[in-house]
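Researcher: Last one for today. Full complex below.
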Amino acid sequence: MSKTALVISGGGSKGAFAVGVLKYMAATPKIQFDTICGTSTGSLIAPLAALGEINLLEKLYTTHVTSDIVVTGNVIARFAGKDTYSLFDAQPLSLLIKKTFTDQMYKDILDSGKSLYFTTVCLQTGRITYFTNSDLPLTSSEYDVIRIQDASTFRRAMFASSCQPVFMPPYQVIENQPRQYVDGGLREYAPVDLAIDNGATEIYAILLTPENPAEDNQHFKSPFEILQQTMDWFTMDVAVNDLRMPKYINRSLQYIKAVKSKMKEAGLKPKEIEAFFDIPFDNPFLGKSDLKLHIIRPEKPMNGGPGGLTFDPPEMKKMVAHGEEVARKYFENL
Amino acid sequence: MPAIRPLSLAEIAYFHPWPYRRKVVTSIKPRSTNSGSLQATPNNSACAAANVDSMKIKWLISFFLLCIITKARAQSEFPKGWIFPLEMGQGVVTNFHSDPDLFLATLAFSPQVTVVPGRLRLGLSGGGAFYNKRIYGTGGGRVSLMISKGPKVMESTVLNAQLVGEFLFGTKDQRLVGGGFATEIGHMATISMKAHRDYVWNNWWFSGSLGIHLFKKKAPKLPEL
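Model: Here's the assembly. Have a good evening.
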């Protein structure tokens, strides 16, 4: 059975680009998703995308300013203070999540039958941890999957997935479990692998960075600027690696398909062909079929400040428009 | 038709009810006027009072609007709430004529509350001063106006610069008016340079001080989601 998945990467305010793409997709090709996976800002977009609340998404991503998301404090007071956890105070974002993602919305998502995955990283174990509403979440030795039991955990997981470590606080998603979770973008920028593992045959991955990053000709002098630039390149590297493996798997699947086709031409029966590839417990492609991977990403770097934490409504409106434009070009060329 | 000229401060005081009138009424002198201009008289005092009231209302509205606008956005410097700095300083007391100048040491506790977040604090200052081999008590009011948030590090502030004004009473009839420049670092410490004029004893107090903020605020907890 074919399954369609939507993957939305992290990127803070640059999520406005994803909103533009979704706006176009909702209006034109009318694609329905079975699975939606998000990281960071992608986790905030995922539930509303699942419910088709594009107007609300557009409003959220074109009206809020930075202080509606985080309060930038005094760096010395935050680092020296007790129980501050982060450079910025993320209380406004938590309030916004509480106000927007109601218990009723959680019920509507369960009723829709769509599976949502929020990417986080556990600070204690360092493992990628997905929180999902799925009844039958896939387990893997490479990551942890935790099933969301109620609306409160749903919001908590969404918040943890959005909290960029150092800038925003880690969050204890499960109340009686002393584990702290942070933005999944720390290790997985776009959870394309997860969508493949969940049996997706067609994946729409909306990424919030261009394929070729812009060069910065600035001469870096301050250690803080160097730290910021290092973090940006680190994020870029995570993004490149996230796509490298799915592309490689896809090429491998296409190669196997071509080999099978040649074997069929050579006169082998389908059962015999399958028997050649049936190596128990050692088949990395078991259950995986040829994948259609659509990558939609901006053509040029977008403004959004360090870590995408600058929320500037006029700039975000431009990102929405750019998202619509890129999506239009992509689907017209399909 | 004769032009109406603006009222002088003394005239406003004369036509306006207490407190201006009671204090300044004796200093009112007739003002020479250009021919044809209309002098404010008790007959048109209602008009003048109305002008003053309207001006006051405009100022009040502007002040409250400023409060609302700045309160709507949380401020990283001069956030709303109280601060409790304990300041220790030293300097000199001089009248510029006698030699040597007197050594001055001060200790003051200056609780202040932010009245306009990101801009203005008001508060009290109480403590003691040692000079001329004696200890005197001092106390009075303080106003702090933030003039700069300083450089930003990773979108966060580090310090702020402020202008400070004080009016202090001393236990030996000192009357000190003055102020200076202060820098608040990390919501933890304040460094200031101040000058005060003691207009009863005809002295100047110059001092530099270092303050440490007591009773630090706890970081806000995230709400239950």
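The domain at 3-210+223-231+290-332 of chain A is CATH 3.40.1090.10 (Cytosolic phospholipase A2 catalytic domain). Chain A is about 45% helix and 15% strand.
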